[in-house]
Amino acid sequence: MREEFPPQLKEGILDFISSTVRESGAEGVVVGLSGGIDSALVSRLCVDALGPDKVYNVFMPSSTTPAGDRESTEAYSSSIGTAYRVVPIKDMVDAFGSVLGLEDSLSKGNVMARCRMIILYHIARTENLLVMGTGNRSELLMGYFTKHGDGACDALPIGNLYKSQVRELSRILSLPQSIIDRAPSADLWEGQSDEDEMGISYEQLDLILQGMRGGSSLEELADISGLPLKRVIEIESRVEANRHKRHSPPMPEQQ
User: Fold this and answer.
1) Distance between CA 230 and CA 7 in Å, rounded?
2) What domains lie within the chain, and their CATH numbers?
3) What is the largest CA-CA distance in the chain?
4) pLDDT tens for each residue of 176-200
5) CB 92: neighbour CB atoms within 10 A?
């Protein structure tokens, strides 16, 4: 059921990155480097497509960022030869919190994601760069991103790769094993885990999402994934409910 990683897919992504930057007239790209596999892969692909001198990695720690992430992201940037900058967001988030009275973790996490995108677009404007998104197909279909936060970007190089394909390509490109093995998390609050929050492993999720794309019935998807039919139906409903997050805002038809 799971699709193999097509050898030509990497080259298609590299062509996409280089042509997108060239046609925009930008000098290069800026990537929000988090310490996770998605941003690490995007940064590496941009290096392969454009050269390291045209890739600007930015690490934006918050009060919930795990200790050691600064050192690991800096070391990774150095290993692939990119520029690297640290811009803490704690003061920005605290300022929004005092004005908006943020109390729950989800609201604060959304503000964190949007603060980071403010920083990336500021750097992009001042340096004539494009903001490269780091979302993958699994996250996009599930709506597992913050609208106008980590969902905002100028291009999505791995937007058509399921999480399982992200891991496979990362292995093909010999990304550090510590990055590949890291538990997926946006680190929007202490102890936050992507899979715990969604209530499903990416391995099971990708089986379902790929099966939906292939036209499998809900009953078949339940059998393939080993999940109850009710859970498969919930996932299908979530994909449909979050369709609005994957499209431009609707407008009324011109009369």
Assistant:
1) 36
2) 7-194 (3.40.50.620)
3) 57
4) 999 999 987 766 666 666 777 777 8
5) 19
